[in-house]
């Protein structure tokens, strides 16, 4: 089956550098933790909770390793930064040094965050850097997102672009955005509503349409749904391949600012 093929491909992934680091950003309530948990659930084939929903602890660079079904870990990790709040809360733009690998696990985000923090990494190696940026955007609320949140996401995206870091949008909650898709996820690619949401998110964040992945996270469901799994695995395969391509490209050149 398509699901088994995708799982096998991810199982046999041997990136040039381990782990590949994937940064997940998005507004509060977009489903970042839910996405990370859904990915782990699909990879393991059972219900899990590794990322706490709606965690408001101001820790940047918290990373999640993903367990393999037969033991061991996948050669990629998700780094989650706190949700982008509207008014002055959330990630500070000067703290996006996480992209360049300046931030070690557990670095506290605060207005006083400085280079004196012992978790600040002054000389990051290519392995400390972020290798792919994943923007989590809720399909049902994309049009209503506060401009300041979009601005923060665009600022981080622009910084990632300066470093040529590949970027995607994972468009969550498509089932809330379209009644037909809510009843049958296989209608996803025929839904005009979802197509509109994909175009709006592309326009707002400046990410091309072919780098946008509409999907549904597991939320309240106990049983698994192959349609959900395949969408998640297709996105994940591309994300880790983009990250690996980036690692290959930086291995052959000297890094700016290093």
UniProtKB/TrEMBL annotation:
Domain of life the protein comes from: Eukaryota
Transmembrane residue ranges: none
CDD domains for this protein: Ras_like_GTPase (cd00882)
InterPro entries associated with the record: P-loop_NTPase
BP terms from Gene Ontology: immune response
PANTHER family attached to this UniProt entry: INTERFERON-INDUCED PROTEIN 44, INTERFERON-INDUCED PROTEIN 44-RELATED
Identification of the protein by name: G domain-containing protein
Protein species of origin: Pygocentrus nattereri
């Amino acid at each position: 089956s398509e699901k088994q093929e995708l799982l096998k491909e991810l199982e046999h992934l041997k990136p040039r550098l381990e782990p590949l680091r994937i940064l997940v950003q998005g507004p509060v309530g977009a489903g970042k933790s839910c996405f990370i948990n859904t990915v782990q659930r699909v990879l393991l084939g059972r219900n899990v909770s590794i990322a706490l929903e709606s965690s408001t602890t101001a820790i940047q660079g918290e990373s999640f390793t993903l367990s393999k079904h037969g033991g061991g870990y996948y050669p990629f990790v998700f780094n989650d930064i706190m949700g982008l709040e509207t008014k002055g809360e959330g990630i500070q733009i000067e703290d996006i040094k996480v992209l360049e690998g300046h931030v070690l696990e557990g670095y506290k985000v605060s207005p006083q965050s400085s280079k004196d923090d012992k978790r600040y990494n002054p000389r990051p190696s290519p392995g400390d850097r972020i290798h792919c940026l994943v923007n989590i955007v809720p399909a049902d609320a994309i049009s209503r997102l506060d401009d300041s949140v979009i601005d923060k996401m665009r600022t981080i995206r622009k910084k990632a672009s300066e470093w040529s870091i590949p970027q995607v949008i994972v468009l969550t909650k498509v089932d809330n955005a379209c009644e037909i898709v809510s009843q049958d996820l296989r209608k996803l690619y025929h839904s005009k509503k979802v197509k509109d949401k994909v175009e709006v998110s592309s326009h707002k964040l400046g990410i091309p349409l072919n780098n946008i992945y509409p999907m549904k996270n597991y939320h309240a469901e106990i049983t698994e749904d192959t349609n959900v799994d395949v969408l998640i695995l297709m996105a994940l395969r591309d994300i880790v391949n983009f990250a690996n391509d980036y690692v290959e490209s930086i291995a052959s050149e000297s890094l700016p600012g290093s």
